[in-house]
C-alpha cells in the first residue's frame, strides 16, 4: 500500500513538474499574441509585414518591418551556409577519423565554445573580424558578411555536439557491413552512417538555425543596425531581434506594441521552420 502510494505520488509529481514548461510556453504565447495581434489589426498586416520604412518617431509613425525580416533571413542563410557543412564535417572527423588524443582535445574545446557568452563572441568579431572584412571588402566592416560569419561560428558547437552524438549512436554493424561489402571508408560514412543518423543531424540543424535567428547581442555589435533592405552583402542590416533590443528601452506605448508584434513575427518564423523540419523528419521515418 505504501509502495503504491509513493509510486502514484511520484507519477503525478513528475507530471505536474513537466506541465511547468508547457505552462511557461503558453504564458509566453499569450503575452506575445495578446499584445501583438491588436497592434497588427489596427496598423494593418500588409503595412506591418511589407512596409519598407521603420520610423516610430515620425508623425505619423511608420512600423514596416520588411527590412528587418530580410536582414534576419540574410544573416541566418549566411550562417547556415557557413555553419552547417563545417559542423557536420567536423563531427564526422571527430566520430571516425580523430584518434583518442585528438578527440580528448576537440570535445572539451567544442563544449567550451558552447559556453562562451554571446557578448564575448560579438566583441571578438568587433575587434578582429570587422577590421578584416573592412580591409577585404571595403566599407565599415559591419555588414551581412561579418554577421553571417559570426553566427556561423556561434552555431558550430550545437551542430558538432549533436551530430557527433548521433553518428556515434549508429550501430557499428552498419559501417562494418558496408566496408565488408567492399565500400570505401568515405562511402560507408556518407552513404550508410550519415543517412542512418539523419534524424539527429536534422535536429542539430534546427537548433542551429534557431540559435542563428534568435541571436541578439553579438549581431547587434557587428551587423550595422541599419533598418533598410540591403543592396549587397557589404551593407549593414538590422535583424528582428536587434531591433527589439535597441528600441525597447525608450519605446512609447504604441512603439512598444510594435516591438511586441515584431517578437510575434519572429516567434511565428521560428515555429514555421520547426514545423517544416518536423514534417521532413516524419516523412523520412514513414519512408523508412
Automatic annotation (TrEMBL):
GO terms for cellular component: plasma membrane. It is a multi-pass membrane protein. PANTHER family: PHOSPHATE TRANSPORT SYSTEM PERMEASE PROTEIN PST, PHOSPHATE TRANSPORT SYSTEM PERMEASE PROTEIN PSTC. Its main location: membrane. The keyword Kinase does not apply. Belongs to the binding-protein-dependent transport system permease family. CysTW subfamily. The chain crosses the membrane at residues 12-33, 73-97, 109-132, 144-163, 258-280. GO terms for biological process: phosphate ion transport. NCBIfam families: phosphate_pstC. The keyword Membrane applies. It is found in: Cell membrane. GO terms for molecular function: phosphate transmembrane transporter activity. Residues 69-277 form the ABC transmembrane type-1 domain. Part of the binding-protein-dependent transport system for phosphate; probably responsible for the translocation of the substrate across the membrane. Gene3D superfamilies: MetI-like. Keywords: Cell membrane, Membrane, Phosphate transport, Transmembrane, Transmembrane helix, Transport. This is Phosphate transport system permease protein. It comes from Fenollaria massiliensis.
Amino acid at each position: 500500500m505504501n509502495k503504491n502510494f509513493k509510486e502514484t505520488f511520484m507519477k503525478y509529481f513528475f507530471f505536474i513538474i513537466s506541465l511547468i514548461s508547457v505552462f511557461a510556453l503558453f504564458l509566453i504565447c499569450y503575452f506575445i499574441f495578446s499584445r501583438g495581434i491588436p497592434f497588427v489589426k489596427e496598423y494593418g498586416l500588409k503595412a506591418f509585414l511589407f512596409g519598407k520604412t521603420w520610423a516610430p518617431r515620425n508623425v505619423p509613425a511608420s512600423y514596416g518591418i520588411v527590412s528587418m525580416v530580410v536582414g534576419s533571413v540574410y544573416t541566418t542563410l549566411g550562417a547556415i551556409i557557413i555553419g552547417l557543412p563545417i559542423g557536420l564535417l567536423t563531427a564526422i572527423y571527430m566520430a571516425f577519423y580523430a584518434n583518442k588524443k585528438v578527440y580528448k582535445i576537440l570535445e572539451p574545446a567544442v563544449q567550451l565554445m558552447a559556453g562562451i557568452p554571446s557578448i564575448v563572441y560579438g566583441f571578438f568579431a568587433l575587434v578582429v573580424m570587422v577590421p578584416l572584412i573592412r580591409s577585404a571588402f571595403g566599407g565599415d566592416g559591419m555588414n551581412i558578411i561579418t554577421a553571417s560569419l559570426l553566427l556561423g561560428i556561434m552555431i558550430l558547437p550545437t551542430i558538432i555536439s549533436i551530430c557527433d552524438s548521433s553518428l556515434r549512436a549508429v550501430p557499428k554493424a552498419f559501417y562494418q557491413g558496408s566496408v565488408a561489402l567492399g565500400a570505401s571508408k568515405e562511402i560507408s560514412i556518407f552513404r550508410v552512417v550519415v543517412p542512418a543518423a539523419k534524424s539527429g543531424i536534422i535536429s542539430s540543424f534546427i537548433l542551429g538555425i534557431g540559435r542563428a535567428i534568435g541571436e541578439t547581442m553579438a549581431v547587434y555589435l557587428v551587423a550595422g543596425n541599419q533598418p533598410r533592405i540591403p543592396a549587397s552583402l557589404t551593407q549593414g542590416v538590422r535583424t528582428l531581434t536587434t531591433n527589439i533590443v535597441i528600441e525597447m528601452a525608450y519605446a512609447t506605448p504604441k512603439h512598444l506594441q510594435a516591438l511586441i508584434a515584431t517578437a510575434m513575427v519572429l516567434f511565428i518564423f521560428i515555429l514555421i521552420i520547426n514545423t517544416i523540419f518536423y514534417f521532413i523528419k516524419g516523412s523520412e521515418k514513414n519512408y523508412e
